[in-house]
Every structure is written in C-alpha cells, then in structure tokens.
Amino acid sequence: MIHCDIIVIGAGPGGYETAARAAANGLDAIIVERDQPGGTCLNRGCIPTKALCRSAEVAVTVREAFDYGVSTSGFTLDYAAACARRDAVVGELRQGVVTLLGGVRTVVGEARFTGERTVAVGDEVFTAPMVVIATGSCPAPLCAEGSELAVDSDRVLEMDRLPAEITIVGGGVIGMEFASIFAAFGSKVSVLEYCQEILPPFDREIAKRLRMAMKRRGVDVTVQASVSRISKADDGRMSVDYVSKGKERTIVTDMVVSAVGRRPVLPEGLDKAGVELTERGFIWVDGSMQTSAPGVYAIGDVNGLCMLAHAAAAQGRVILGERVDLDVMPSAVFTMPECAMVGLTEQQCADNVTEYVAATVTFRSNGKAMATGDAEGLVKVIVGKTDRRILGCHICGQHASDLIQEVAVAMVADVDSSRFAAVVHGHPTLSECVAAAVEKADKAARGS
Ligand code: NAD
User: Fold this and answer.
1) Which residues 6+ apart lie within 8 Å of 274 measured at CB?
2) Which of 52, 157, 173 to mutate to test the pocket of ligand 1 (most atoms within 8 A of CB)?
3) Which of 45, 173, 206, 416 is most enclosed, with most CB atoms within 10 A?
4) In whole angstroms, what is the distance from residue 399 CA to residue 338 CA?
5) What is the pTM of this model?
6) What's the average model confidence in pLDDT over 147-160?
7) Ligand 1 close to Cβ of residue 195 (< 6 A)
8) What is the set of domains in the chain, with CATH numbers?
C-alpha cells in the first residue's frame, strides 16, 4: 500500500489543476488517469472546438473580405486542414499539462475504490487522507428509436470531413457550437431543440438573438421539436422523424449529431468507499465538495453542480482551502456571434419575484463594433431595483466571453451599478457597451 497526502482521479481541468496546486502547496500528490492528460476540455471539448471555431471565423471573414475592401481571388475550405491545426493546438497544450504536473506522480490506468480513501490501479494500491474524484462526464445517449445511427460530440471530433447536410439534435451549448462551425464550413445545418428556446440556461432574449443570427447564416433551428426516430435508407441518407407543435415532420440528412447533454463518468467501487449518488446519478457533495464519505471529494462534471471546466478547477481550489466565489460563475457559448452570461437571467428574476430592472444596449450603438463590421447582438444588464446590485449580465455579440468577465469581477467585489457606471471605459472599445447597459439600468433603478 502506497501512502500519500492526496490522490486525484482524473486529469481533466478539475483534476490536473487540483493536483498541481496541491503539489505546489507541498503536498505529496498522486494523479491517476486512464487516457491522455487534459480530460474532455482539452481532448474532446473546449479546446478542439475553440480551434475549429477560429477556423470557422476565418472562413467567414475571408468569405466576407470584399466588404472590407479586400479582394480574394477565390478560396477553398479545407476542413481536414482545420482539424490538423486543431490537433496541433491540442498536442501543444497537452504538453503544457504534463509540465504543470511536474511535481505530481502520474499513474496511468483505471482507478477503482477498494475501500475508504483507498484506490487501486492495476496491482498498485494507494491510500491518502484526501481523495478527489474528478472523472468528468461523457455524452448522454439520445432517447429515440435508431439513436445508434447518431454520432455524439466525441465521434464528431474524430472526423476530418463534413457531409453536405447535417442535423443536430439538441440546441444546447454543444449543439449550437457545432452548428456554427459546420455552417461556416459550408454544410447545410438543421438543429432540433426540445425546449421552447435554444440554450435553455441562458436568458431567453439572448438565446433568441443567437437563434436569429444563426438563421441569417443559414442554420435552420426548430424549437419544441421532439425526435422520435432516426432511420437510414439504402443510399446512406438518414431520416429524422420529429414532432413539432403537434405536427409530425421528417428531415432527410447525411449525418445526425446527438448533443442532448452529458452524464457522469463514475469510478468503480464507490459503494466500497461509501460515496453516494444524487437522484440524477451524479456524486452527491456538500458545499465543500465533500462526498458522503469523509475525506473523499468530487469536483467538476461528475458532481453535476456546474458542467464547466473553470467550475471544476474552482471547486478544486475550494477543497484546498482557497477563497473562491463559486456563486458568480460566468459561462459562454463560442458561436458566431458568441453568447455569455453571469448571474441571474431575467426569467429567474421574474420567477423569484426579485425586484429588478433590466436594460439593454445594442452593439449597433458602439463605435468599435460598427468599425469592425460585426455589430450583431446586445448587452443586457439586470440590477436590483432598490439596492442597485448587479444581478446578472447577458451578452450576445463578438467577444462576449471576454466582456462578461468585467461584470463577474464587479459582482464578486459587490460593486453596485452606480459605482460601476463611475468607472471610465476606454474608447473605442466594446466594453463601452457593457458600461452603457449598466448605466442605463442604474438610471432606471433610480427612476430617472
Ligand atoms: P445541454 O444540456 O447544454 O443541452 C442539451 C440540449 O438538448 C438542451 O437544450 C435540451 O433541451 C436538448 N435536448 C435534450 N434531449 C433532446 C431531444 N430528445 N430532442 C431535442 N433536443 C433535446 O448539453 P450539451 O450541449 O450536450 O452540453 C453538455 C454540457 O457541457 C453542458 O452542461 C455545457 O454547459 C457543457 N459545455 C460547455 C461549453 C462551454 O462552456 N462553451 C461547451 C460545451 C459543453
């Protein structure tokens, strides 16, 4: 039996960040990983898709180059080359993770619990007063007849060719990011979303903006669509049967992509460790990320609290006793245009009968946005009516994922809308849009 201070299972962003920080704090740390370091984020998620998003963005820019006074004498789209670039980016970053884990003993293999705070990998057995489960998640299966004909996000990222027509089931974060990439590379894309609006956790006005913007780029989105059956004809084409607003419809397509959520990846032997699950099948944790077994923690997708890479890393910092504000969690979708949010949506404020005011400012009123030729979208800021605390911010538009961060800082630092409005924002910058929306909300809250 090998003794150490902390065992981390899974080398995704939750696991590798926690193990590296633990080692930097002087702890004897072991990390167990059965696959490549970097987890879903680096190998099958955030990073490879962001590399493809960038290729998609370049494709659109070149296509529209003439509008900017640049003539191109024809161009070709090479998805395989974009995939090669993606793989190179991933490879380089993977090396960065290996370097980061320099002070941590890495054990390659499948970890399973054999008892309380005891983990076996092959013939080796490890024990520590602290065990962190950071095993992540995998694509959830689509519940429809013929669902095995659909490819999930992992398999899509293994392909280096795109068919002419693609139907995506699920208009969530993954579905919309793929829709944006595939459309930019010339495929005809349809999205079937079960809910009333795409991106269910997002503010509805923002999600609708994105849906409209994607429509203008040729992506056909159907909401309130329930997929019942997928079938394949002799010519290899697929049919997707679905019901929308009481009517039965069919889309004929070349490929069906399933992006209907993710489910936890659970290590074996959780019962031996005394780790219990929630009703939804995730690992139950308390506010300090401790499971029902003392000394055993679970962070990231596997606990189902917030399926975001940075949330996993932040939860790991909580375990190590660092001060982290988990209540203010920015998130973004890397579509064209991007969407980002932090805090409460307007519907959440309305449902909770929180007294609030919401103000919106469009990117069209912003000099920098107009000058760049990409003024699609808006910023919405929600402020408490009496205390003028910033309750939420929602952005659809270029660089939304970066712009949201300023508001996150203000929320954590408890900067109210009046104080925020007093901050001078540089000109011409997109951040002026955020400042203008905050100022508008502040004035509305003060009734002026
Ligand atoms: P999701 O939960 O965000 O979206 C799934 C969508 O599929 C939902 O809109 C849901 O209503 C819809 N759906 C479910 N069953 C359906 C059906 N039978 N027919 C039609 N629609 C159906 O899940 P996801 O997009 O798979 O992403 C998984 C997780 O990964 C999310 O929690 C997400 O936050 C995270 N993620 C984040 C990022 C990012 O931050 N940029 C990127 C990718 C993934």
Assistant:
1) 116, 292, 293, 296
2) 173
3) 206
4) 7
5) 0.96
6) 96
7) yes
8) 2-139+263-319 (3.50.50.60), 147-260 (3.50.50.60), 337-447 (3.30.390.30)
Of 3, 399, 425, 427, catalytic: 427
Assess whether 427 carries a catalytic annotation. yes
48 lines ligand 1 (CB under 6 A): no
For residues 342 and 78, what is the distance between their CA atoms, to the nearest angstrom?
36
Residue 171 CA to ligand 1 centre (angstroms): 7
| Angle value at C-alpha 137, between 225 and 25, nearest 5 degrees | 145
- 325 CA from centroid of ligand 1 (Å): 25
Structure tokens at 65: 């180059």
Residue-level pLDDT at 72: 87
Q: Which residue is closest in CA terms to ligand 1's atom 9?
A: 172
Whether ligand 1 lies within 6 angstroms of the CB of 185 is answered as: no
Cβ neighbours of residue 175 closer than 8 Å, sequence gap 6 or more:
168, 169, 191, 193, 198, 257, 259
Average pLDDT, the chain: 97
pLDDT digits (tens, 9 = 90+) for 310-366: 999 999 999 999 999 999 999 999 999 999 999 999 999 999 877 999 999 999 999
- What is the dihedral sign for C-alpha 214, 219, 225, 227? negative
**Residue 379 CB coordination number (10 Å):** 31
